[in-house]
Amino acid sequence: ELGPYAHFMQKEIHEQPRALTDTLEAIIDDNAFSPALFGAEAATVFNEVDSILILAAGTSYYAGLTAKYWLEGIAQLPTSVEIASEYRYRKSVPNPRQLIITISQSGETLDTMEALKHAKSLGQHLTLAICNVQESAIPRASRLVLYTRAGAEIGVASTKAFTTQLVALFTLAATFAKQRGLLSQQEEQAYIDELRHLPGSVQYALNLEPQIREWAKAFSNKYHALFLGRGMHYPIALEGALKLKEISYIHAEAYPAGELKHGPLALVDKNMPVVVIAPNDALLEKVKSNMQEVSARGGELFVFADADSNFTASEGVHVIRTPRHVGVLSPILHTIPVQLLAYHAALLKGTDVDKPRNLAKSVTVE
Ligand code: M6R
């Protein structure tokens, strides 16, 4: 069942080109973004929507944080993202025109299910589930559904579920943009082309595994690590830190790189490796100056940089080149190296990668 792989996690990381291709099949075949993908009622429901609230837990929450950049940036829909277990226990201001999006790999996470019920009890009835398991509890309780087609995910650490959630959410943002008259036909075609090329770029990133395995040696004997990203790559830094914590038990934190000087810079020394997600986007120069702040304090940097940026390695600065910048889909691509880094650090530590201590695949208790 594992084929050439040592663990389900490794297998599932490598299945991502296929999982993305399957999830994108309908869009690529239609060569268009269409509300029908989200259910028969979707075109009507989407017309009522004036804003979005995303509710989820763990890695699925980070998918939501990433989606906010797309939903606001492309579709101009005000979007809030909240941890499901927080939302259900506070007084919020219900808005019946707000679309409640739940994101869940399993579709059975109790916190997310209860948050959805709470939203509905407040009169919020525009609901959409992004889910990987057919006919599970959360999609059954939602009006609209988009199923990701990652296939069964067995490793406790979510990998292919996350990247397929991201393409589903990007598709949603593009669909809204189109319906709201914000996407020209040319732009629609350009996005679909980018989606079509994504699985190939992901495969390229997977081929970096031998280099990333080498880097993992610098993490497996450390107690702490810091992950930095900016803009839509900040949630990917969060995801990288969660993966490392969850399976290697190394304490890891993520920060938006611009926040360094507001506190975490005090932690930086040679014993805390700093991972930087540094795509070749509008924020690259800002990220570079944040990196200098780390270097000046003796911190060791491990940089994932796009092939088309002019990064060079130097003393204390290690660089791995990811594929050339893939524009607005870049967070999906930059997820692959942080998954592999966590996996190989855990292997070196000898932890139970597929079943980390104290954790369950599907959290159906509070
Ligand atoms: O099945 P869900 O997507 O609702 O699960 C949510 C979290 O429990 C899950 O993403 C968890 O954080 C993963 N183990 C992270 O790798």
Described by the principal axes of the CA atoms, the overall outline is: globular
Classify the secondary structure makeup into a structural class: alpha/beta
Q: Which regions have little confidence, pLDDT < 50, spanning 5+ residues?
A: none
State the end-to-end distance: 32 Å
Q: Count the E strands.
A: 10
Radius of gyration: 20 Å
Separate helix tally:
13
Bound molecules: 5-amino-5-deoxy-1-O-phosphono-D-mannitol
Order of helix and strand elements from N to C terminus: HHHEHEHEHEHEHHHEHEEHEEH
Mean pLDDT: 95
Helix-residue proportion: 40-55%
Describe the structure.
The protein has 366 residues and is α/β, with parallel strands linked by helices. 46% of the residues lie in helices and 15% in strands. The protein has 13 helices and ten strands. The strands form two sheets. It has a five-stranded parallel β-sheet with strand order 2-1-3-4-5, with helices on both faces. It is globular, with a radius of gyration of 20 Å. The model has no long low-confidence stretch (mean pLDDT 95). The protein binds 5-amino-5-deoxy-1-O-phosphono-D-mannitol (M6R). 5-amino-5-deoxy-1-O-phosphono-D-mannitol binds at residues 57-60, 104-106, 109, 112, 156-158, 242, 246, 362-363. Catalyzes the first step in hexosamine metabolism, converting fructose-6P into glucosamine-6P using glutamine as a nitrogen source. GO terms for molecular function: carbohydrate derivative binding; glutamine-fructose-6-phosphate transaminase (isomerizing) activity. One of its GO terms (biological process) is amino sugar biosynthetic process. Residues 42-182, 215-356 form the SIS domain.
